[in-house]
Amino acid sequence: MKTKPIPIIITLAAALISCVISIVEHVDFSVFVSRLLVVVLVFLTMGTIIKMILDYSFRTLEPTVSIDEQMDAIMPDEPGEEMPQEDVATTEENPSESEEG
After folding, report:
1. Angle, to 10 degrees, between the axis of helix 6-25 and the axis of helix 29-61?
2. How far apart are CA 51 and CA 2, in angstroms?
3. I want to staple 14 with a disulfide (CB 3.0 to 4.6 A). Which of 43, 54, 59, 101 is the partner?
4. pLDDT by residue (tens digit) across 44-88?
5. What mean pLDDT is predicted for residues 29-37?
6. CA geometry: angle 50, 36, 51, nearest 5 deg
7. Which residues contact 6 (CB under 8 A, 6 or more apart)?
8. How far apart are CA 43 and CA 31, in angstroms?
9. What pLDDT is attached to residue 1?
């Protein structure tokens, strides 16, 4: 999960609510700016902490892939299935590359 925008979204939402409340209360400009600064700093910190918790919880919740599942992805079980061939260049295809000389 992408958690990068979480602190920004939380901070902007809190700043918007703070601005609306300050405008409705008809506060002075200095009070308005100080409220906004405090709200932005507090909610940015809270958003960062929430992001760190979510990152940690999603990292621990990821299921581990067993060795059997990894081997099944590499080697098919049925003999009729062909394995994907890697693109290997030979010296005939690349005459500029020689083994010796």
Report:
1. 150
2. 10
3. 43
4. 999 999 999 999 888 877 666 667 676 677 776 666 555 556 555
5. 96
6. 10
7. 47, 50, 51, 54
8. 18
9. 73
Question: At CA 59, angle to CA 61 and CA 53, rounded to 5?
Answer: 100
Angle made by CA atoms 74, 63, 5, in degrees to the nearest 5: 115
Total-model pTM: 0.58
In sequence order, the 6+-apart residues with CB closer than 8 A to the CB of 96 are none
Q: Assess contact for 46 and 9: CB atoms under 8 A.
A: no
Full DSSP string of the chain = ---TTHHHHHHHHHHHHHHHHHHHHT--HHHHHHHHHHHHHHHHHHHHHHHHHHHHHHHHHSPPPPHHHHHHHHS-SSTTSPPPPP----TTT-TT--S--
Provide the sign of the torsion angle of the four alpha carbons 17, 23, 25, 31, taken in this order: positive
